[in-house]
Write a structure and sequence with these properties.
By secondary structure, the chain is mainly α. The protein is built from 10 helices and no strands. Helix 4 packs across helix 6, helix 5 runs parallel beside helix 7 and helix 5 runs antiparallel to helix 10. The two termini are about 30 Å apart.
Length: about 260
Amino acid sequence: MPAMDYLYTLSGFAVGAIVGLTGVGGGSLMTPLLVLVFGVHPATAVGTDLLYAALTKAGGTVAHGRKGHVDWSITLRLAAGSIPAAAITIWVLSQLPKGSNVIGAVISHGLGFALFLTAIAILFGKKLRDYANRHEESELRRCCLPKITVLVGAILGVLVTISSVGAGALGVAVLFFLYPKLSTVKIIGSDVAHAVPLTLVAGLGHWLLGGVDWVLLGSLLLGSLPGIWLGSHLSAKVPEHILRRILASMLVLIGTKLVLA
């Protein structure tokens, strides 16, 4: 294996460990790491990370599904918005000029924006849920919750397809806000289940556009799977609130660099 592949594997291990420790940070760390540290083209980084997410979260979906931790009605509502939105976004990207920096610029700025939103979701997720609990009986929520969920799915579909970020921490934060009475484990299970078809469709779309590096994908998976296992076993010994604050601060810094680049 070339030296660069070993570095990709090591990076996958590090990101996987953070995901295992905090439950978030996959795409929000992996994609900017590939772009800023390894110099991977933004479109290739996003496309590769999308398929990486689809493969790693598929196992989680099976596990959550077997335990009854997935609210399939919520997952289907999200997918009803996100899958068409992802397909349309891929089509729009395919219409941009080939061989120019337009696609890279769109993805870099979209990635930076998504990282800011994810940082906010990590820092203020609990406060958003508390607010939603106090306003659970609002008229808008009672009459339009299914339609709002589909709309949220569409927004996530665009954001994830452009940046590969948003299917994790951002999706969980939104579901906490929309369904404050649903248990945490069902929120997470439903979000993971929704992320699989979304990232798969978006990832395959990027592959059709030539934006997937299969060797890179294999190297990342080789490191991340043991990293996730190790992180999940260490999570009980590390203060999660400190890790989340550090992670959110990192995302803001990385997002700023991408937006201003």
